[in-house]
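O-methyltransferase family 3: structure, please.
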Amino acid sequence: MSQDQWTAVDHYISDLFIPPDAALEAALTRSAAAGLPSINVAPNQGKLLHMLARLIGARAILEIGTLGAYSTIWLARALPTDGFLITLEAKPEHAKIAQENLRQAGLTSQVEVRLGPAIETLPQIAAENKGPFDLVFIDADKQGTPEYFRWALDLSRKGSLIIVDNVVRGGKVIDATSTDPNVQGIQRFHQWVAAEPRVSATALQTVGSKGYDGLTFIEVIN
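Here you go.
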């Protein structure tokens, strides 16, 4: 199968199950116009995040890596009226676009965009007793994933769900000799998760409009 076919199937799925949405489409358009990289989750992946958040009854969500807030919108819409989401973004230009996208989506009352490197803002969130979070979505720089997972686990509770994006790296994740820091970060993260007695986890390969990659799903069990 080719990238063109993967993309066509993604469009088929979206056309079937994801009705046109002005706020989401505007978020993508605004992000592209501002020069943000097109590395947001695909629509069907956003819908999956939304459904998972609803299925676990998430009231508090933490997102590490905002970009233009496309996935943020999907997740925040799954919250009850008294729920909240904190999303962490290192780049001011991304945070600015994200804030506008959230404003246009009518979600600013439930979503806080926290500016700064996640390695600095995560300790702040812990010190402010913002957790525990019911769902944590990690979609930031991959070399930092092990440290982000450490904080996600500390900020979770029994029953929390942690989801990590871009974990297959086009298949490179199985290359034990890789010198790519992104691949190495994911490998260290997976090794930690596999040995961590407090969690139960699995990972799925994905193909689609975003290429060949995958997601890791982690349930906090203790």
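Notes: Residues 3-17 form the longest helix (15 residues).
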